[in-house]
Amino acid sequence: MSTALSEIDIPAVATTLLEWIGHALVFGTLVAGLTWLLIRPLRGRVSAGLQMALWSIVLVKFLVPAGPGWSFSLGSTYERLSARITGPGTVGPELEIGFRSQAATSVGERTPSGATVSAWPWSWQIVVAAGYLLVVLALGVTRIQSYRAFRARCLALPEADEATRRLVRDVCRRLRVVPMPLVRISDESRAPFVMGIVRPLLVLSRRQFVRPDELETVVVHEITHLRRGDMLVRCLQCLAGTVLFFWPVVAWVNRRIDRVREHACDERALRYGKLTASGYARCLLSAVQPPPAHRLTYQPACMAGSPSTIERRIDVILTFPNRSRRRPVWGLLAVAILVAWGGFTLTGVAEDSKTQYANTEEDMRLHAQAVYDQVNEYAAGDLDGSGEVTKDECWAFVAAVALQQPQTLLADYPQADQNQDGKLGVVEAYQFVRGDLDLTKLHKEYELAVKQTKKSGDKQQAKELKAEMFAAEMAAYHVILDRRAQFVAEMNGEPTRDEVKAIAEKVAQFEAKKKVKKGSLDETLAKIAGLEKKAAGMRDKAAQLDGDKAAKYEAKAQQLEQEAADMTAKLIQGLTGKIAKLEAAGQQEKADELKAILAELEAD
Is 482 part of a structural domain of the chain? Predict the structure, then answer.
């Protein structure tokens, strides 16, 4: 047990809990405000059932602030608006920044200065999260015990007689409610109420038995709660009120749900009961329940349990005879509104809206600077002591971090092992951190397509491919930068200055040798590219002229192309022999580099 507990990342759990609370408060309150703005102008036109469903969606948002991604969700809209307001490179206020920055310095980690952070029990996030959980647990246990005790008292009440049970059974049949609830009679309660989901219990007041028409109308009202699934909504209300007990907006939403729930049942009671509107209003007044003595005591949803809403309910009831029954088309419209509103509010941020930086050069630069600043917090990041981390220093530092657990990195990114020897070399780690593999693969894919499109003469498609390649390149840079930031955030101890410096020196030596060896090859490739460029220029001029001048330029272009082809053929022959020698000598890494160049030449 203690071993399992020690393996749990307590600071991460506390941070996640506080992030959830923050998101729940922000987005739940936002949806509550939007729902109020949606309903208020349509007061009197929106049915009580639709209003209750809309407010129930608000409670769900409080409990589940994040959902499956959708481009047209509230979260995606919020991200886009925030990005426009705050400018490029940001997506508005990040709720988790304050928590993440401190949660990162937990047990076993070091600060940039190398000092060890105190043990996790002293983290303020853990103290706050633990205190919150204790209060919620105590409140939840108290409410559950209060509910069970109240239900036990209700079950101990006298059972209803056969005639009353027959009446309840008939109402359940008419309203298509299954199963029929247990029926008890109370001498103390002034208002009837229903409770329970699996085994519902209906408690009637003795005073309703004086008039049979009043009794039937009251039963219709209470059975309507079961037909509408109001008990499930009551559980949702209780859960939200317990989990977010400190937030007044949740209590405000619960009061609105209580009010519209009773309005909906009042309408059905008047439609299917035997009382007139005035008679039903008098029944409500006589059944008003006094408020509970203690706010933690379980209080069922009595028919007239909220004195503060009685006046408003009576006003609605007295105008009920003037209302016409809604057509079926209004029911379909209500369902459509619920589906649309639920999809908009309950879904989360789409993947394409979560990107913190856009695919532009400026955003790429800002993203890179954020990673440089992250590395600059550590003493070993700034090798030359200039006060600012350079690209080479950043790559060397992150490569040192990657080499702390090479097998873990290879398990996640097997492509980093370029020579396939099962080990992660210094140069391999450096090139992987720098993103050479990602960018080389991307450039090969697009450059080949651009060349083929140019040869076909479709300049517009070639232009579109270049623009597409630029966007893909920017996206690849962001992936590489995020990967570096993740390595640094999850590193197992800060690498020393000597470790980072050794990597930088070794890579510098490798790059110098590689440059000397590739000098003649690069020069030949440059000559071939120059000849091809001149030939293309000659053909463009020939296309603008006629007659002998055009033929002269065309002939010159063919001559240049032939020279380029001859040089390419000679270079291919030389590379083929060089690759064979390298493979025979076991120098597969160098052979693979030449093979990549050979593949490009042969593709051309």
Answer: yes
